[in-house]
Amino acid sequence: MVFDDDLKQGLAAFAALLDASDTVVPFTGAGISTDSGIPDFRSPGGLWTRNKPIPFDAFLASAEARREAWQRRFAMDTAFNAARPGPGHRTIARWVASGLSPAVITQNIDNLHQDSGVATESVVEVHGNTTYATCLSCGRRHELSWIRPLFEAHGEAPDCQACGGLLKTATISFGQAMPQEAMRRAGELARRCDVFVAIGSSLVVHPAAGLPLIARDSGAWLVIINREPTPCDEAADIVLRGEIGSILNDRADL
Ligand SMILES: [Zn+2]
């Protein structure tokens, strides 16, 4: 059932559902972070409609592509560094802290679930994380605060301190393999929950499009909270259509 004009009734139904459930798995997309100042890259007028994404094979093959990728990332540094968790992140952090949610699955790369107090191991990141870099050869983590001054001094990012491999933000680029362990955990969480709540995702990009239906086919209730309609709305039990920040506004009953 879709609630848009009368959200109050929908919120009451959602609160009752949470109350009657043992395991709630939240799945989040860009819409939960726009209130925090992180732009939705894919939205019309978003960064990706103006700057074509740099595919993974180009990043590997070309120093020029790598320079462009780092330049774009550091241009976003102010926004990422200033972003703080919003009402949606805080609500989910409470669900995890109380044991209602075993973990949160996210398409976001902004680290805001961890910043809201959710332990790193309870955040399943299907598109990686842009707030640090990893070595593409050995996987070692490197901090952007170390890379940036070296990039600005030399016009290229430094190599891995351990093995000399290429460093890249820990995100999943176009053409890069999906993170197997995160995908496995996301599928397992979707199959084993009582309620699957998709928040702020347009549910069109893989794997987002599939997870709500996996949950539903495994017997879970499906709740969708998003500003725009999604292709999964028809399959959902409750659709709350509106701004995430005002729907999950630190309500005591959610
Ligand atoms: Zn390395």
TrEMBL record:
<feature type="binding site">
    <location>
        <position position="135"/>
    </location>
    <ligand>
        <name>Zn(2+)</name>
    </ligand>
</feature>
<feature type="active site" description="Proton acceptor">
    <location>
        <position position="127"/>
    </location>
</feature>
<feature type="binding site">
    <location>
        <position position="160"/>
    </location>
    <ligand>
        <name>Zn(2+)</name>
    </ligand>
</feature>
<keyword id="KW-0862">Zinc</keyword>
<keyword id="KW-0808">Transferase</keyword>
<dbReference type="GO" id="GO:0016787">
    <property type="term" value="F:hydrolase activity"/>
</dbReference>
<dbReference type="InterPro" id="IPR026590">
    <property type="entry name" value="Ssirtuin_cat_dom"/>
</dbReference>
<dbReference type="InterPro" id="IPR050134">
    <property type="entry name" value="NAD-dep_sirtuin_deacylases"/>
</dbReference>
<dbReference type="Pfam" id="PF02146">
    <property type="entry name" value="SIR2"/>
</dbReference>
<keyword id="KW-0378">Hydrolase</keyword>
<dbReference type="InterPro" id="IPR029035">
    <property type="entry name" value="DHS-like_NAD/FAD-binding_dom"/>
</dbReference>
<keyword id="KW-0479">Metal-binding</keyword>
<protein>
    <recommendedName>
        <fullName>protein acetyllysine N-acetyltransferase</fullName>
        <ecNumber>2.3.1.286</ecNumber>
    </recommendedName>
</protein>
<dbReference type="InterPro" id="IPR003000">
    <property type="entry name" value="Sirtuin"/>
</dbReference>
<keyword id="KW-0520">NAD</keyword>
<feature type="binding site">
    <location>
        <position position="163"/>
    </location>
    <ligand>
        <name>Zn(2+)</name>
    </ligand>
</feature>
<feature type="domain" description="Deacetylase sirtuin-type">
    <location>
        <begin position="4"/>
        <end position="254"/>
    </location>
</feature>
<feature type="binding site">
    <location>
        <position position="138"/>
    </location>
    <ligand>
        <name>Zn(2+)</name>
    </ligand>
</feature>
